[in-house]
Design a protein that fits this description.
The chain is of the alpha+beta class and 604 residues long. It has three domains: 305 residues, Aminopeptidase, CATH 3.40.630.10; 177 residues, Glucose Oxidase, domain 1, CATH 3.50.30.30; 84 residues, PDZ domain (Pdz3 Domain). Helices cover 25% and strands 25% of the residues. It is built from 13 helices and 27 strands. The strands form five sheets. Strands 2, 3, 4, 5, 8, 9, 10, 11 and 12 form a nine-stranded mixed sheet that branches. The chain has an eight-stranded mixed sheet with strand order 1-13-15-14-16-19-17-18, with helices on both faces. Helix 1 runs antiparallel to helix 2 and helix 7 packs across helix 11. The longest helix is centred in the N-terminal third of the chain and has 21 residues. The chain is elongated, with a radius of gyration of 27 Å.
């Protein structure tokens, strides 16, 4: 963070604290919500990207507010729960590529002539070449570049995209991702993959930016992109024309794959370094004043966002380099956390139970902060009776629709939610939409995966979601105040009840959630934390195939349907190839032991 940015942020904090000290009270108010969001979603916070100085500034602001409310850290801790994560990858010093033939050899320059992909395995390989079309193996679609082609022990050259070109709705598009091309080649026994842009799809032949895709696990083999002119030269020496070959594949939708003459050999060395970053959750603890204060209600919201966006950031305007302020996502939830912390701090002596207020970082990178928390809890998870999560609660519309996830994760949730929604015998605050499932697209999933009942409040998505236009002036502040007063009453019911909320494992609902176009489900929720080899299970759905097969949360899937699973991308790709009723063997690592279980795939 530059001096000007830091100075501006500090001035803003001072001004905000001054305004709050003059007008704040224990009551939840639209004024205070606005003040919090205006700061957190200001340009001075630079998009609050996890691991940046601006993200840390937001964390310090939250901690300062906790302290101002008289809300201390967990006993024996400070406000910040730090965690490490992989922030980016960079080129090491050992990247090289050499092409040799009977006339000699030529060495090429990294970042100019070729570039490794961020998920490439670090390795040194040498071998002959096979051209394998688009590098797609989708026999179920009648297309397989590897049919009748032996690539075992070879270096494979493949075209980017598919015969559908750049059409995002093409029939083969789902098979054409970089990760899938690497997986197909690995399963066929290839040594490495060389990817090139076809002239039809990318006349400028730009190299793909080196980026980290938030998976610790690599592709299992080296994969590099090479400038087209280099491969065209190799093809020409064999009397072949790359453009003509691509035209023919696209026109006929029939693969053309062949071995390059064996006098051409390529040696590749890939060397990537993972750069670790640091971020921190922020936690404030409010000990209740009555008998059951050893039991804790967790209330949470994430405060990170997308920084300046860009390719791979999750931005829905990836070509726009601009601050993504994230006013609704999730300065609104963070402001709500602060308002609830302030309110309940004034009620501490009346509380039957204690409250842990948690502001998470790393949610946008895959629930990193909440995943770290449940692995390293500040209060014992067995004492955590429930978790309330707020993510995007600032855009209440005229319809007054409020969506609540996790409504079946405890047997009395719906009764509480319905009771507190009535302002009179006939009038309601909100048009409530209940989603039973405790797994969903935010931090409550990490807690539900640990058998903790959850509620997640959400006012809905909008056209500014994950765009630079998600700004503070578009928030419905009076609407958010109403939402927070409702959440306050729901929390009070939980805190004052003599009975602990009973956890319920909810069966998956096929009508909800992100299906990613899959036909089947295994009934597991991935753990997006760092798993170097395999796909770690964060939770298992009740009555799903995984539960019936005996899979457990914490298991790491390393093989499924006879195919290696090195990462979540492998898992999702294999899932997409299966059909309902398929009986598949799932190999997992559990407490250091390798186990084989049989699961029958279920229609989603």
């Amino acid at each position: 963070m530059g001096l000007r940015l830091l100075t501006l942020a500090i001035v803003t904090i001072i001004a905000l604290d001054s305004a709050n000290s003059q007008k704040s009270s224990e009551a939840i108010t639209a004024f205070e919500i606005r003040q919090h969001i205006r700061f957190l979603a200001s340009d001075s916070l630079d998009g609050r990207l996890t691991g940046t100085a601006a993200n840390r500034l937001a964390a310090e602001y939250i901690a300062n507010q906790f302290e101002r409310f008289g809300l201390p850290p967990v006993p024996g801790k400070d406000y910040f729960q730090e965690f490490d994560f992989v922030q980016q990858v960079k080129l090491g010093k050992g990247n090289s590529m050499v092409v040799s033939n009977s006339n000699g050899s030529e060495e090429f320059v990294v970042d100019k002539d070729f570039r490794p992909f961020g998920f490439s395995t670090n390795a040194s390989v040498e071998g002959t070449l096979v051209f394998a079309g688009y590098g797609i193996s989708a026999p179920e679609k009648g297309y397989d570049d590897y049919a009748n082609t032996d690539v075992s022990g070879k270096i494979v050259i493949v075209l980017r995209y598919s015969p559908d070109g750049t059409n995002p709705h093409g029939e083969l598009q789902e098979f054409s991702s970089f990760r899938n091309k690497a997986r197909y080649a690995r399963e066929k026994g290839a040594l490495a993959v060389i990817l090139i842009n076809g002239e039809i799809d990318d006349p400028d032949d730009d190299l793909v930016a080196l980026r980290y895709d938030h998976s610790m696990a690599t592709s299992g083999l080296p994969m590099i992109q090479v400038k087209r002119r280099i491969v065209e030269k190799i093809m020409k020496s064999a009397g072949l024309n790359l453009r003509s070959i691509q035209d023919s594949i696209n026109a006929t939708r029939k693969p053309i794959s062949f071995a390059i003459p064996e006098n051409v050999r390529v040696s590749i060395n890939t060397d990537l370094e993972q750069i670790k970053g640091k971020s921190a959750n922020v936690a404030g603890f409010l000990r209740g004043g009555k008998a059951q204060n050893d039991q804790v209600l967790a209330i949470g919201a994430h405060f990170d966002h997308l920084g300046h966006g860009g390719e791979g950031s999750g931005s829905l305007s990836p070509d726009e380099d601009a601050v993504h302020n994230g006013a609704d996502d999730n300065a609104s939830g963070t402001a709500g956390l602060l308002e609830l912390a302030q309110f309940f701090a004034g009620q501490r002596n009346q509380l039957n139970r204690s409250i842990l207020f948690l502001a998470f970082s790393g949610e946008e990178l895959g629930l990193l902060g909440s995943s770290h928390y449940v692995q390293h809890p500040l209060v014992p998870l067995e004492n955590t009776i429930a978790m309330i999560n707020m993510d995007m609660i600032g855009r209440l519309q005229e319809s007054r629709k409020l969506t609540v996830y996790g409504t079946a994760t405890s047997s009395n949730w719906e009764a509480i939610l319905t009771k507190e929604n009535h302002t009179s015998e006939h009038d309601s605050l909100f048009a409530l939409s209940f989603i039973a499932d405790g797994f969903g697209p935010s931090d409550h999933s990490s807690f539900y995966g640990k058998n903790i009942p959850v509620l997640f409040f959400f006012t809905g998505t909008h056209n500014d979601y994950h765009k630079p236009s998600d700004d503070w002036n578009l928030i419905n502040y009076d609407g958010e105040e109403t939402v927070l007063r409702y959440i306050q009453t729901v929390a009070e019911d939980i805190l004052q009840s003599t009975e602990r909320p009973a956890y319920v494992n909810v069966p998956s609902s096929s009508s909800r959630g992100n299906t990613r176009g899959f036909k089947v489900t295994l009934g597991v929720i991935p753990d997006y934390g760092e798993t170097p080899n395999g796909m770690k299970i964060g939770g298992v759905r009740a009555d799903g195939p995984a539960a019936r097969a005996g899979l457990l949360g914490g298991d790491v899937i390393v093989k499924m349907a006879g195919k290696d699973v090195l990462n979540i991308y492998d898992y999702m790709a294999i899932l997409g190839e299966l059909s309902a009723g398929d009986i598949v063997e799932v190999e997992v690592m559990r407490n250091g032991d390798r186990m084989k279980l049989s699961a029958t795939m279920q229609k989603r």
